[in-house]
Design brief:
Length: 149
């Protein structure tokens, strides 16, 4: 699936249907693996001159950050028991929701995905830091945000 994703990006870089599916937070974790591993491969492989650049996907930074945050929350769920806010939120959740997120067999998968995402961020930090400029933002705000990134 990773090879297919990479080939699809190289053939049709502006068709982001596969990326939209893989970045969906409600989809199976294997699609997240495919997305992260494919982006890593696109970044790390020696580029041929006619291949599209990874900069085309910088506009998806917000969705990648959301996937990173979601993965981080799921991977560290068992380690944050001493945080009072965490204890409050767990007591407010229904038992069905707790059972959904506390599956012990999924914890290593989320930790491995988190590791792959950290490697991806290390390879190209702009994938997560890129900011899309809207029409209502003043030039000073854009410069300040760009300097912060």
């Amino acid at each position: 699936m990773t090879d297919c994703f990479v080939a699809l990006f190289r053939i049709m870089p502006h068709n982001n249907d596969a990326l939209k599916v893989c970045l969906n937070l409600n989809i199976n974790i294997s699609y997240h693996y495919v997305c992260v591993n494919s982006l890593s491969r696109i970044i790390k492989q020696p580029r041929l001159p006619w291949w599209p650049q990874i900069e085309l996907l910088y506009s998806r930074a917000a969705e990648l950050r959301a996937m990173f945050t979601d993965t981080l929350n799921k991977a560290t769920q068992g380690y944050m028991v001493h945080t009072p806010l965490r204890m409050i939120s767990l007591s407010l959740k229904s038992k069905d929701m707790q059972a959904k997120y506390n599956k012990p067999e999924e914890m290593p998968a989320y930790r491995n995905l988190l590791l792959c995402m950290v490697k991806l961020i290390h390879a190209d930090p702009m994938l997560m830091l890129s900011v899309t400029v809207s029409a209502d933002m003043s030039p000073e705000v854009v410069v300040a945000v760009s300097a912060a990134c």
